Amino acid sequence: MPTHPFDTAIALHAEADNRFSGHTSAAYANMIGPFGGVTAATLLNAICVHPARLGDPVALTVNYAGPVADGPFTLHAVPVRTNRSTQHWRVDLVQDEAIACTATAVFALRRETWSSPEIARPEVPDAPNVPVNAMPARVVWFKQYEMRFVQGGMPDFRNPPPVDDTTHHDTTSTLWVRDEPPRPLDFPALASICDVFIPRIFLRRQRPVPAGTVSITSYFHADAAQLAAQGSQPVLATACAQNFRNGFFDQSGTVWGSDGKLLASTHQVVYYKE
Amino acid sequence: MPTHPFDTAIALHAEADNRFSGHTSAAYANMIGPFGGVTAATLLNAICVHPARLGDPVALTVNYAGPVADGPFTLHAVPVRTNRSTQHWRVDLVQDEAIACTATAVFALRRETWSSPEIARPEVPDAPNVPVNAMPARVVWFKQYEMRFVQGGMPDFRNPPPVDDTTHHDTTSTLWVRDEPPRPLDFPALASICDVFIPRIFLRRQRPVPAGTVSITSYFHADAAQLAAQGSQPVLATACAQNFRNGFFDQSGTVWGSDGKLLASTHQVVYYKE
Predict the structure, then answer these.
(1) Mind listing the pLDDT tens digit for each residue in B128-162?
(2) How many CB pairs under 8 A join A and B?
(3) Residue ranges for chain A with pLDDT beneath 50
(4) CA torsion A130→A136→A139→A143, rounded to 10°?
């Protein structure tokens, strides 16, 4: 079986002193540099493959401090504190001696205890009943995901509807999404899907606007058993903005398993230039 | 005018090499150690007072890696990357050579541009029309805030209602809150208020459950002018949980100005022991 392109993209080579070398993947190229989701997945992967790792991810914050150039990079992944059942990490992505990304993560050994959802999965048709969307070919990483939009797909920029700035616009996107070709879900893949949403400002303005994630935080509700049960089936992802103000907007989303259980909640703040 | 207890709590003394010394405040004591909100505010303050600071905060993530003991601590605040209009920071809180908290922050020079809210402030009575709640005296830091709960106040643990685990329970808390005594709102005070919510699991289970924030991320939508306009009036804060699962739950909230504009959105993941 050939290696999945996602595994190639997040592959790391362990060096000495908590350092790992990697290389950006042409398959996950964005308009400029790599897709931020796969960058977040790669930083998380440095912890997942680290020999000192304790448990599974609970929280991951990635800050995109500067552009990531196509080419090699070094990750520096340090377990800054290990407790009995939790472990705190710091990860940096370095290129040419400059820090391009910083990250922190919390890992934990989970144990089964009282659990209960508070919010429910959006009611949508099952994935097979939602058509697959053809995404713009100019964004390479779109080809690595099968997307079936229930709501809030990529606007048709050649034929935009009139936008009235004075009224409320809902930027919610809801889609079934999976790796293309299919790949069993794991924590790096889930971290990447947490960033799969097109910029909310595209939907709000109905036209392309320069925008880029500045900081993303994802909380992992799933454990390894839940991911194994999910396998390579599509997950349901939904996100909306809360506020656009003077060059930055925020976005909050959730990612749901095919069994209707929450896999991850995810939040980000995004720079935009209007 | 005497120094406000919040200013005493977040006060730092600059040392060499990006280091600052501080001391926990008895006025903001929690059941064990300091209130996490004031810890987050103190870490943010290290950047605010740092001579290399560029602009105002956009994002702050604080990870509570280990207990903070009552007493002195050292903060290490490093500007890891400075761009033209954004700056990325790393801050650690160290006690006895162990890292107790890690943080990352994004600061930015904002410029006025197209802005628009997507969500609206909850419709609630004005602050003067909501009674001030007496909070349990055993938690010292409660005394430093005036809280007027519209919804989801501290449960009466001596006389809890029956809780049915099989049905949905809304853990939303909505309250008017301000520093006590009143103090003009600034970024550290806003960062602290982002953590002012009692643990959602108290509301869900209607009984005290050991719980503690593991990681909090706040996004600042307000700029300095908006904070100045807010002054020392109460802000409206609202939060709910999304999912409780095997020892961790998440919480998402928003903090609104008295003019109805969003000041901050805030998210956290919380450990609980059932």
Answers:
(1) 999 999 999 899 999 999 999 999 999 888 877 76
(2) 210
(3) none
(4) 40
For B84, the closest chain A residue by CA position comes to A66
What chain B holds in terms of domains, given with CATH numbers, is 5-110+124-272 (2.40.160.210)
Nearest to B115 among A61, A80, A244 (CB): A244
Distance of CA B70 to the CA centre of its chain: 19
Which chain A residue has its CA at the smallest distance from B215's CA?
A: A59
Residues in B closer than 8 angstroms to A168, CB to CB, are 118, 120
Cβ within 8 Å of residue A56, ≥6 positions away? A107, A108, A109, A110, A187, A220, A223, A224
Of B63, B223, B254, the CB nearest to A242: B254
- Percent over 90 (pLDDT), chain B: 90
- Residues 6 or more apart in contact with residue A162 via CB below 8 angstroms: none
Instruction: Give a three-class secondary structure readout of B218-244.
Output: EEECCCHHHHHHHCCCCEEEEEEEEEE
When pLDDT is cut at 50, 70 and 90, the band that residue B83 belongs to is very high
Chain B contacts of A59, Cβ < 8 Å? Answer: 63, 214-215, 269
Q: Tell me which chain A residue has its CA closest to the CA of residue B268.
A: A219
Under an 8 A CB cutoff, do B104 and A252 touch? no
Per-residue pLDDT, A165: 59
